[in-house]
């Protein structure tokens, strides 16, 4: 198997899900056989928004030939990763380069995990929601948009409300009675807005 590890391993983080790794080629005489390529092992150490450590799964990408760089796609935003690089010949792989740590920046969050509308009265509704399963960063706020839908399914004026990130429920007051409303709800990080979840609910009729 090859005798030495690739040196001068550098990681350039391109965005929250993509990084580029560079290394120096090894001297051909140390390959001790036919150079097949370079293999990058990389794994997520932890999510920076949640401190929980979980089962660590190693990802492996092989770059054929005498390459000096490779792309690592499909990374998780706002996470800490480690990687190392090894040279590969027909017999197997050589020693690993020292582990290199890199961090991905924040991304936009996934949609809130649920949106539930309860306690309809004549002029109010209660909204409850769950935070995104993948915050992909530090949540800064939620945005709620809602509008009435009339009997011919036409949409009325859209109202928008910003809600602090630490809230998980809201009572909407001063609504029209016996009216169907459509709700659009999403979360934000400093990078931007995540995908929205939609729901409909009706205030009760005037007795």
From TrEMBL:
Coiled coil (UniProt feature): none
Disulfide bond keyword on record: yes
Domain of life of the source: Eukaryota
UniProt keyword list: Disulfide bond, Immunoglobulin domain, Repeat
Record bears the keyword Phosphoprotein: no
Record InterPro entries: FN3_dom (IPR003961), FN3_sf (IPR036116), Ig-like_fold (IPR013783), Neural/epithelial_adhesion (IPR051170)
Signal peptide: none
Sequence ranges assigned to domain Fibronectin type-III in this UniProt record: 5-107, 111-207
GO cellular component: neuron projection
PANTHER family xrefs: CTX-RELATED TYPE I TRANSMEMBRANE PROTEIN (PTHR12231), NEURAL CELL ADHESION MOLECULE L1-LIKE PROTEIN (PTHR12231:SF257)
Protein name per UniProt: NRCAM protein
Species for this entry: Turnix velox (Little buttonquail)
Gene name of the encoded protein: Nrcam_0
């Amino acid at each position: 198997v090859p005798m030495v590890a690739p040196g001068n391993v550098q990681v350039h983080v391109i965005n929250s899900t993509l990084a580029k790794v560079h290394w120096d080629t090894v001297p051909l005489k140390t390959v001790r056989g036919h150079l097949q390529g370079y293999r990058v092992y990389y794994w997520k150490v932890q999510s920076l928004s949640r401190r929980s450590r979980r089962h660590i799964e190693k990802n492996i990408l092989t770059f054929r030939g005498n390459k000096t760089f490779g792309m690592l796609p499909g990374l998780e935003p706002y996470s800490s990763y480690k990687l190392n690089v090894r040279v590969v010949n027909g017999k197997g792989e050589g020693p690993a380069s020292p582990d290199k740590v890199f961090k991905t920046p924040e991304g936009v969050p996934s949609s809130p995990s649920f949106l539930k509308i309860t306690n309809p009265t004549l002029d109010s509704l209660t909204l409850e929601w769950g935070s995104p399963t993948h915050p992909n960063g530090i949540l800064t706020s939620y945005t709620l948009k809602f509008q009435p839908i009339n009997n011919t399914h036409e949409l009325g004026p859209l109202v928008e409300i910003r809600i602090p990130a630490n809230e998980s429920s809201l009572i909407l007051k001063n609504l029209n009675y016996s009216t169907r409303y459509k709700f659009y709800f999403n979360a934000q990080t400093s990078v931007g807005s995540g995908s929205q979840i939609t729901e409909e609910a009706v205030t009760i009729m005037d007795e």
